[in-house]
């Protein structure tokens, strides 16, 4: 479970949000909305533990760290898809077999690209390598920043199915997106543009 109480954040003398409180339970899907610059990514970084310039309480009650996936492909250009995912797996969950890494690459539609340097891939392919972490790393909570951007229709469908799987398994998903999610679960909304 995640409980956020009385969160306040100001950047460059502009209040992004104040008195922001919400909860996310296992099996919940929370979509955070708002205009550009409203603080969506900052909020995700705060609840992920990546940004500390705020006041208020963020309380996770989980057995493992949440998995944060940024809107920017978090891959190293000089490494291949396989090498990038192995590096991440070794960092977060050492001991993941090589076959599982290849399965994750195939799951996101990149069969045949296992040994291609990510710097030689399109933006959409790099995004798919980044999203392959959802098929590789186990986490009770996913925090996804604009996961639908820069991927094609098939990629969107694949991602929405994977989000549904996470929710069916009792996991929670917190996502920012300017697009509606097409999943067989109730979507709760938090609009940061309306929070002030």
Coarse shape = globular
Gyration radius, rounded: 17 Å
- Taking pLDDT < 50 over at least 5 consecutive residues as the criterion, the unreliable ranges are none
**Total number of distinct structural domains:** 2
* CATH level-four homologous superfamily name of the largest domain: P-loop containing nucleotide triphosphate hydrolases
Q: How many helices?
A: 6
**Given this structure, which CATH class of the largest domain is correct?**
Alpha Beta
Number of strands: 8
Mean pLDDT: 94
As an assembly, this protein is single chain
Explain the overall architecture.
With 196 residues, the chain is of the alpha/beta class. The chain folds into two domains: 1-66 and 139-196, 3-Layer(aba) Sandwich (Rossmann fold), CATH 3.40.50.300; 75-138, no CATH class. It has six helices and eight strands; from the N terminus they run βββαββααααβαββ. It has helices at 40-48, 81-92, 98-107, 123-131, 133-136, 153-168; strands at 2-11, 14-24, 29-33, 55-60, 67-69, 141-145, 172-176, 187-191. It has a five-stranded parallel sheet, sandwiched between helices. A hairpin with a 2-residue loop joins β1 (2-11) and β2 (14-24). The longest helix has 16 residues, at 153-168. It starts with a strand and ends in a 5-residue tail after the last strand. The mean pLDDT is 94.
């Amino acid at each position: 479970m995640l409980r956020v109480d009385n969160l306040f954040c100001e950047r460059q003398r502009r209040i992004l949000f104040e008195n922001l409180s919400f909860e996310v339970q296992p099996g919940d899907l929370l979509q955070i909305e708002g205009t550009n610059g409203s603080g969506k990514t900052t909020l995700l970084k705060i609840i992920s533990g990546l940004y500390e310039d705020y006041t208020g309480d963020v309380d996770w009650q989980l057995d493992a760290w949440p998995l944060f996936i940024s809107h920017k492909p978090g891959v190293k250009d000089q490494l291949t898809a396989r090498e990038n995912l192995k590096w991440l797996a070794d960092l977060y969950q050492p001991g993941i077999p090589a076959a599982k890494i290849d399965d994750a690459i195939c799951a996101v539609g990149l069969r045949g690209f296992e040994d291609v340097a990510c710097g030689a891939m399109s933006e959409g392919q790099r995004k798919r390598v980044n999203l392959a972490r959802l098929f590789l790393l186990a986490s009770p909570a996913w925090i996804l920043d604009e996961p639908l951007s820069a991927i094609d229709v098939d990629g969107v469908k694949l991602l929405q199915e994977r989000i549904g799987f996470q929710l069916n398994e009792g996991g929670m998903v917190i996502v920012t997106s300017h697009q509606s999610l097409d999943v067989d679960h109730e979507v709760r909304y938090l609009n940061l543009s309306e929070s002030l």
